[in-house]
Design a protein that fits this description.
Layout (H helix, E strand, L loop, with lengths): L1 H23 L7 E7 L5 E5 L2 H28 L2 H5 L8 H13 L1 H5 L7 H24 L2 H4 L2 E2 L2 E2 H8 L4 H14 L7 H4 L16 E5 L9 E6 L9 E7 L2 E8 L2 E7 L2 E7 L7 E5 L7 E4 L2 E4 L1 E7 L7 E8 L2 E3 L11 E5 L12 H11 L6 H8 L7 E7 L4 E5 L22 E2 L23 E3 L5 E4 L4 H5 L24 H11 L6 H9 L5 H16 L1 H5 L5 H12 L9 H12 L13 H22 L6 H4 E5 L2 E4 L47 E2 L7 E6 L5 E5 L18 H8 L3 E3 L3 H5 L16 E6 L1 H9 L3
Parallel strand pairs: 2-7, 11-20, 23-25
Antiparallel strand pairs: 1-2, 1-29, 3-4, 5-6, 5-22, 6-26, 7-8, 8-9, 9-10, 10-18, 11-17, 12-13, 14-15, 15-16, 16-17, 18-19, 19-21, 23-24, 26-27, 27-28
């Protein structure tokens, strides 16, 4: 009897083992649970049985917050804007056409067709995200909420766009991420290089900087690593923060589709900065003087390849376009006009360069989707040490007390015989006719045993930081740190200047003045010191001392006297109550003087220029504000549903660590707006009261900081969440929340456990007219989701 009982137990155990094996095998997994809870800031918290199930929830959550925005971005990456947004049957919108030519010429969607070659776990995550996104759209159609949710805005019927485009696919998702990385690579091209003598020009994509810092546990009051990042993302549109929890992993951060951008990923805190784009992706091609479709290779002239595409245009016939390619890629300023240039410019973005590596796009996407699930900074290094596929420099910290800095942002610079010292000039195109400028013939070669990325692990100072600075600035506290001999010039240029924000971060970290998240918030995240303004003010004081007799003899108006005294007494901070910041802002928009460097004494002539331009500044202040003493918050604000919310922080021409305004991204066909709303709408009576003021809609909208301790994880963030858009979400009670936090210099404490989330649920989620419920539950089968997109292939 005992023997039979023992055998029965063994049989049951074997059944359990077999059941476990079947559960783990791809295609045989049972349905998995997903629950989405929304907190008081409308941030989705996704609790799921697996990463696949979590991705389904993330797809649904992003659709709830910004389905139209995501579909629009995919349409742009596909090169189909003209098909959906051409308004007139009489006049062609060339801005839309040029974007479509550019996207189709670079082939993002075509390259994304390789997604079926991705590892199976990556394919399943892409399918799960797409299914969650599409299911939400279909459910709103079935419930009758679709038309109410996607009403027309600005003459665009968003519902028609979503219906016309149809369900998104994994190929669409991959194409969009390739587009984002590829288009962000070349914003520092010159006007000559961007110009056109033909039918297509390269559209400049606005770039933005970022700051990041990692602090080791020995310097932190909580005895755990701190990771801080500030991406300066747009204030307009949805910024998708999400928290995902699966067995053993807690992920919180900023997402673009299913791709993790920054935040707390698994056991690794991730912040990044973006290098200045590397123009080595651009080849200057010498064109035959008599045959515009021939270009030089070595000592020979060879024909360009041609490709004809068809641009679909709403209300019009399709437009055939002939594209020209050299061996380096698409030549965007061809075919030429009558005044054609001697040179063409061919574009070969590294993330798309299959000539170097056939699997380049696949490797890039695999890295992107595995990023949030990593266990340590070591895993991150091994995943990202090849610099072919990203423009990002990473600052990292993990739950085990490690911090690290990885410089991977610069793509390999091709220079060959052009620069025998191997000191790369990343600001100019590479002569394409030299055979030595190819990746396979140049100094850097794939698999070169002498090549290594600048990588720093737990430096002796206990801090790593970056504001687009050189690696040796990111880890050292010497007054003038020297370039290490082991970093070659073709990896990092000879000189990488530090920004004003980078200098302050270095000063704060080297003085050991940041020891807690409270210090991060008070001294860095919302720090509004303008170093340029401080040096300028100090120089003015020296000028008055040096030329007191000459300047004292001048007859100055009362306004100029008051402004001069105001500026010299100003603390150089861009706080909302500081009139000195308003005066400096107007002065800098009119002055011919440069920023004065540290310890500089201006000449008498410079002081006279300053006082003369102060008179112009006073006149402008009285025109714009009716007074010369105007708090910065009266000039620098967001407008939400007609309400002005004052904001601290700098602008593009007066940098502060906390940047609150950096211009805006244009909509299709819209002219790029300047940071001062009134400057190019001077005759618009509707906006007359905005003359000279800064309407903030871009910059510093994702500040995040994390204590990396798995026993007590803490994360803070501040960003416009998906329902910040008052036009798309007119009934949302969340519209003002994040702007009010900015205004008061506060941030959100993110609940990271189910218990914490339950105590901070969205109190408005189930109100009539609200955009999403507080709690949503699903049961999904990842294998079935995978088959949705693969069975026909």
């Amino acid at each position: 009897m005992r023997h039979h009982t023992t055998m029965r137990l063994i049989f049951i155990m074997l059944l359990a083992v077999c059941f476990t094996c079947a559960w783990a095998r791809p295609g045989l997994a049972a349905k998995q649970n997903v629950e989405i809870l929304r907190d008081k800031y409308a941030i989705p918290h996704i609790f799921a049985d697996s990463p696949d199930a979590a991705m389904y929830g993330l797809g649904r959550a992003e659709a709830e917050d910004g389905a139209y925005d995501y579909v629009f971005s995919i349409i742009r990456a596909r090169g189909r804007l003209s098909e959906f947004y051409q308004q007139s049957a009489d006049m062609l919108n060339m801005d839309l056409v040029q974007n479509d030519i550019q996207s189709q010429a670079l082939g993002y969607y075509e390259l994304a067709g390789q997604w079926r070659s991705l590892p199976e776990d990556i394919q399943t995550q892409l399918c799960a995200f797409a299914a969650g996104f599409n299911d939400y759209i279909e459910q709103t159609k079935a419930s009758g909420a679709f038309d109410k949710r996607y009403f027309a805005i600005g003459g665009v019927d968003r519902g028609d766009v979503i219906r016309g485009f149809g369900p998104i696919t994994p190929q669409d998702i991959v194409a969009l991420d390739l587009y984002i990385n590829g288009e962000g690579a070349l914003s520092n091209m010159t006007d000559e290089e961007l110009g056109t003598q033909g039918q297509a020009s390269y559209e400049r994509i606005k770039q933005h900087g970022s700051n990041a810092m990692g602090i080791g546990p020995d310097l932190v009051r909580e005895h755990a690593s701190i990771v801080y990042g500030d991406l300066h993302n747009p204030w307009t549109g949805a910024q998708h923060l999400a928290h995902m929890e699966t067995p053993g992993k807690t992920v919180f951060g900023l997402f673009s589709g299913p791709f993790f951008a920054a935040g707390r990923g698994g056991h690794v805190g991730v912040a990044f900065t973006r290098n200045k784009p590397d123009a080595a992706d651009v080849f200057m091609e010498k064109i035959h003087p008599d045959k515009f479709d021939m270009y030089q290779v070595g000592d020979e002239w060879v024909p360009m390849q041609r490709k004809t595409i068809s641009i679909k245009i709403r209300h019009m016939k399709d437009l055939p376009v002939t594209l020209f390619y050299t061996r380096h890629g698409w030549v965007w300023n061809y075919p030429p006009g009558p005044e054609r240039s001697e040179y063409g410019y061919a574009l070969q973005v590294s993330v798309l360069d299959t000539a170097m590596d056939l699997d380049a796009p696949i490797k890039y996407i695999t890295k992107r989707l595995r990023l949030p699930w990593l266990d340590s900074v070591y895993d991150h290094y091994h995943l990202n040490r090849e610099p072919l596929y990203s423009m990002r420099n990473f600052v990292l910290g993990d739950d085990y007390g490690n911090i690290s800095y990885l410089w991977v942002g610069r793509v390999p610079v091709r220079h060959g015989d052009i620069n025998p010292l191997h000191k790369a000039d990343s600001s100019a195109p590479v002569p394409g006719w030299s055979l030595l400028n190819e990746w396979t013939n140049g100094v850097w070669m794939l698999g070169d045993p002498d090549y290594q990325l600048p990588y720093y692990l737990n430096p002796r100072g206990g801090v790593v930081r970056s504001a687009n600075d050189a690696p040796w600035y990111a880890t050292e506290c010497d007054h003038d740190p020297k370039r290490p001999g082991w970093i070659p010039f073709h990896v990092v240029p000879e000189r990488v200047d530090s920004s004003a924000r980078g200098l302050l971060m270095r000063e704060l970290s080297c003085s050991r003045s940041i020891r807690s998240l409270d210090d991060v918030r008070a001294k860095l995240a919302f720090n509004t010191l303008s170093i340029e303004s401080l040096h300028f003010i100090q120089a003015l004081k020296r000028g008055w001392q040096m030329y007191a007799q000459d300047l004292g003899a001048l007859k100055l108006s009362d306004d100029v006297k008051r402004l001069d005294r105001m500026l010299r007494d100003w603390n150089a901070r861009a706080d909302i109550d500081q009139p000195g910041m308003t005066a400096m802002f107007i002065l800098r928009r009119n002055t011919s003087l440069p920023w004065f460097p540290e310890n500089y004494t201006p000449t008498l002539n410079e002081m006279l220029i300053y006082l003369n331009e102060l008179k112009i500044t006073a006149d402008n202040l009285r025109v714009f504000y009716k007074d010369i003493q105007v708090p910065w918050g009266d000039a620098h604000f967001m407008i939400i549903n007609g309400r002005r919310i004052p904001l601290p922080g700098g602008t593009t021409n007066i940098q502060t660590p906390f940047m609150a305004s950096m211009g805006s991204f244009p909509e299709p066909g819209e002219v790029q707006r300047d940071e001062v709303f009134g400057d190019n709408r001077a005759y618009d009576e509707k906006h007359k009261d905005l003359r000279g003021r800064v309407v903030c809609d871009f910059g510093s909208s994702f500040i995040h900081a994390h204590i990396m301790d798995s026993r007590n994880p803490v994360s803070y963030a501040i960003t416009p969440q998906g329902q910040i858009d008052a036009v798309a979400f007119p009934n949302s009670p969340h519209i003002f929340q994040q702007a009010e936090l900015f205004s008061t210099g506060q941030w959100m404490r993110i609940p990271l456990t189910r218990k914490e989330v339950a105590l901070n649920l969205d109190p408005w989620g189930d109100d009539p007219g609200h955009e999403h419920p507080t709690r949503t539950s699903f049961s999904v089968d990842p294998a079935a989701l995978f088959k949705q997109f693969t069975s026909s292939n």
